[in-house]
Design goal:
By secondary structure, the chain is mainly alpha-helical. It has 14 helices and no strands.
Length: about 350
């Protein structure tokens, strides 16, 4: 039985509990500050003050397309010849590859087979007497060494774990969580780049084929790369459209001598609160990711079918998306500097 004297305390306790629940629900319902939210929020606030309609830029990102694969003929080793290699680990490798499962193996397993063949063949060849089989194995070894990079590039451009990472969808990076998953992504890229360098330098025995599948699985679990790509491309498109909008309607916000410049002061507050404090902070972290990822990714995908796509999104040449975005950022700040100087409005107090 509840005593009457305790009712006020119970009510106060319940009220505090309801407030905490309501506050938690409110936090849970707040929209994440991803690239769509930041540009929509900033542009709508500007348009509301300028009092001119604004239409966001249409967004059609460039997508990767799988290059066509040209199969290279390889010397065929018959079942009987494989049986005569039973004393070599290479014989078991060839037998497994010639099985039904081996013939439909994914590109990653095809690469592993090529590398393992190259690693095992020399020792096995040395055990054979001169003859047709030894000649075939030597020819196969030379061909696989020459085509190893082709098989590696095939993994880069056809394996789902990588093609999904480069697909620009609807998810983007969220402010204050920009670097989540970066270490895992850098580790996977580094592992793949090490394999590529060993192939290029023909250091076959240093390639750990047991790490290829786990590395690809690591790529499959990360989403940072595809979210970065969308954030970059979307920001460049929206900032370009917003700069064009400000350029077109600049005359409507020019300060007039002898008149109150309240609208202009509000505009500058919007710039400081929603561009400098949020959107520019977002773009700055985006640039940090570009700085860390660009060099290894360009090296990894160099000479592959995705080289052009990667250079467009990570390169520093004129026309590359990072350079386009930097140019629009400079253009945006220059517009605001000219606006503030023409109005002689002091920066808002922080």
């Amino acid at each position: 039985m509840i005593k009457g004297g305790n009712l006020p305390q119970i009510r106060a306790f319940l009220f505090k509990g309801l407030l905490l629940i309501g506050f938690s629900l409110l936090l849970g319902c707040q929209r994440a500050k991803d690239v769509d939210y930041l540009w929509q929020d900033y542009s709508q606030r500007l348009a509301h003050v300028i009092e001119q309609p604004y239409s966001p830029a249409s967004f059609l990102p460039t997508q990767v397309t799988r290059p066509k694969v040209q199969e290279s003929p390889s010397p065929t080793i018959s079942i009987l010849e494989t049986l005569s290699l039973g004393h070599c680990p290479l014989g078991h490798l060839i037998a497994d590859h010639n099985s039904t499962l081996g013939k439909v193996a994914p590109d990653s397993q095809q690469l592993i087979y090529q590398i393992r063949f190259i690693q095992l063949a020399p020792t096995c060849i040395d055990t054979l007497e001169e003859g047709e089989l030894k000649t075939k194995l030597k020819q196969a070894l030379e061909q696989k060494q020459a085509n190893a990079m082709t098989y590696f590039h095939r993994v880069l451009t056809r394996d789902k774990s990588i093609t999904r990472s480069l697909f620009i969808g609807y998810d983007s990076l969220v402010l204050d969580e920009m670097h989540a998953g970066r270490l895992e992504l850098e580790s996977a890229i580094g592992q793949l780049l090490t394999i590529k360098r060993h192939i290029k330098q023909r250091r076959w025995q240093q390639i750990d084929t047991t790490q290829i599948e786990p590395t690809l699985a690591q790529m499959a679990h990360q989403t940072l790369l595809q979210r970065y790509l969308r954030s970059l491309a979307y920001s460049r498109a929206q900032l370009t459209a917003l700069n064009d909008y400000l350029q077109a309607h600049g005359a409507s916000v020019v300060c007039r001598p002898g008149h109150a410049n309240r609208k202009q002061e509000i505009l500058q507050n919007v710039f400081h609160k929603y561009y400098l404090a949020q959107t520019q902070a977002y773009l700055s972290q985006l640039n940090q990711l570009h700085y860390r990822l660009s060099e290894p990714l360009i090296a990894l995908f160099g000479d592959s079918g995705y080289q052009t796509f990667i250079e467009h999104h990570f390169g520093e040449q004129p026309g590359a998306l990072p350079e386009q975005l930097k140019a629009q950022m400079r253009r945006h700040v220059e517009w605001w500097q000219a606006f503030r100087e023409s109005c002689n409005i002091p920066p808002p107090k922080r």
